[in-house]
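[Meeting: bench + compute handoff]

Bench side (C.D.) handed over the final construct sequence. Compute side (W.E.) agreed to return the predicted structure before the next meeting so the bench team could plan truncations. Sequence as handed over:
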Amino acid sequence: MSDSEFREALAAIAARSQIAQRLEAGPTEAVLRSVVHAAAALFEAEAASLALFDPDRDRLVFRVAAGEHGRGVVGLEIRADEGLAGYVFSSGRAMAVADLAQDARFGRNVAETTGYVPRSIVAVPLLDDDGALGVLEVLDKRAGSFSLRDVELAGVFAHQATVAIRASRIERDTALMLSAVAARLAEGAPQAGVDEVVAAAVAGLCADEDPIWPLVERIAAIRRASPEQLALVTAMLDAVSTHLSRHRGGHGRFGAGPR
């Protein structure tokens, strides 16, 4: 690899890092909180929460929550195959349950430790190219039961959360990549060894046409919005929610398990 090719490879990595850093207005947690708050508002739900997978401990950890009854779940850890969240995470299948009391997978004992036992739920996996990252849950819609359309909309919110997580990990991994290359050079490693590091770094990058980049841009734009602009977005979401509530009759209802 020539010096110019080496510089181009590092520039490609740095370009991706710059994209990810456009979320620098705050940590990933803030973006995830905005996702669950928007989901709770749109569905007019009692609570919404998001659990992320910790591969080192094989646990789902509830990181953020929203809604009147959502706070108690933050910090809760469960096995990656435990309860409805574990089922959705392990299977990669979204689901809606109209009556949790009738579903054997529902961990009522775990729910009781949070101070709130839900009646119904929509749960959607956060899916990346490499598998599931976590689970988004929306609990107890105040007006009626969850519909197939609700599951689809929850999937949109889950995708936005996945974008934020991916962007954060790209930024983290980029720093590790650059450090590894610099370390190899400082140690006087053979050119072949440096080539391996750079090739692995470039191979792991998303293509320019990957839809993650415009989505990252959108999230970053929302993060930079003024309070007045955010109020306008909230009003628009309220209007969408009202519109959907008037047209849910034709979308069907979910029973006590996945379809």
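W.E. noted at the follow-up: Strands lie at 45-54, 59-66, 77-79, 95-97, 121-128, 131-141. C.D. will use this when planning the next construct.
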